[in-house]
Amino acid sequence: MLDLPTVARGDLFSAIGDHEHVLFFHDPDVGLKGIIAIHDTSLGPALGGTRMAPYPDLEAALFDALRLARGMTWKAVAADLDVGGGKAVLIGDPEKDRSPELFRAFGRQVHALGGRFYTGTDMGTRPEDFAYAYQETPYLVGLPEAYGGSGDSSVTTAEGVVGAIRVTLEFLDGDGDLKDRTFVVQGLGKVGLKVAHRLLEAGGRLIVADPSAERVDAFRRLAESFGKTFQIVSPEAIYDAEADVFVPCAYGGVITEAVARRLRVRAIVGSANQPLAHPGIAETLKAKNILFAPDYLANAGGLIQVADELFGPNPRRVEQKLSVVLETLRFVYRRSDAEGLTTVEAAERLVRERWERRKRLNVRYRPDVPPKWRFRR
């Protein structure tokens, strides 16, 4: 167990709130330290990725795990999946601290939960990391096809984000065509670069920013291969760029009150989890007539793909479920407009209504049967 020097006991339990299970683990022999947060398993096992980052302290790691686990529950319910929300965070620099031994030790921590939590890649982790974890546990998703998985889930996440952008422009203008629209893409990582690729293919104009020179160079080569004009700005200047859609594809919490007042866009649609620093910022965006796509609808593609692995990978089934989520986004926009709500309020009301309805149906799962046949009604 990890020491909790920065979190007072009362504050810790207050922070955990409605989460079912929070596990702190530490293996000093391999440098492993981290947290698994399970928010809800009333509809199925908790599912969420594992991110690795050099958190400044344990409190920061804990709050990241808790907020992301809760967000995964909302995302699963919004996509009508038979899973709950969970998240794992590993404390360390992914460029310096990752090792086969560390991920094998992490796999043992996942396995000890007996199927209550499935995980895979997220920010700071790679599929090959989980090839080592797979030596210790089968409770993994998003593995390469050689391991029985469905492959890179960032592809489906990017497809969902671009689909959400089309739905958003369709709501604003009656036309979801991306050609000759301007998009500001923040972050050119696993998902961001794929989103940028699809926007370029569709004829969009791009303004991008990323602190990594390597990722910026990868984008530059991509854009030049399309013969497209583009603009690269500093990570701070990205918030002042004028465009149709701001596409956050990096860390969450980037849209603060100050940033919201600076934005010169008509909509925000991206892959970043919880990009608003707090829910109240949705009111600021609404006052500025900036349409915000709730993140757990815009970026649900990856979760849909990896959750589908529990039944055996099926690309057609994933495609159908993704189309349902995009239709849900249309409904949220219409409800927000009709009832004078922010899109955050409209989405949360819808998800809570669905969640309560699903729980009343008593849809449960059995942790004592093989993973792919875990569910029953």
TrEMBL record:
SMART domains: ELFV_dehydrog
Alphabetical keyword list: NAD, Nucleotide-binding, Oxidoreductase
CDD domains: NAD_bind_Leu_Phe_Val_DH (cd01075)
Keyword set includes NAD: yes
Lineage top rank: taxon: Bacteria
Record-level GO BP terms: amino acid metabolic process
Pfam families: ELFV_dehydrog, ELFV_dehydrog_N
Sequence positions that bind NAD(+): 187-192
Domain Glutamate/phenylalanine/leucine/valine/L-tryptophan dehydrogenase C-terminal, residue spans: 151-358
GO molecular function: nucleotide binding; oxidoreductase activity, acting on the CH-NH2 group of donors, NAD or NADP as acceptor
Catalytic residues (positions): 87 (proton donor/acceptor)
InterPro entries: Aminoacid_DH-like_N_sf, Glu/Leu/Phe/Val/Trp_DH, Glu/Leu/Phe/Val/Trp_DH_C, Glu/Leu/Phe/Val/Trp_DH_dimer, Glu/Leu/Phe/Val_DH_AS, Glu/Phe/Leu/Val/Trp_DH_bac/arc, NAD(P)-bd_dom_sf
Similarity field: Belongs to the Glu/Leu/Phe/Val dehydrogenases family.
Protein name, entry field: Leucine dehydrogenase
Lineage: Bacteria, Bacillati, Bacillota, Bacilli, Bacillales
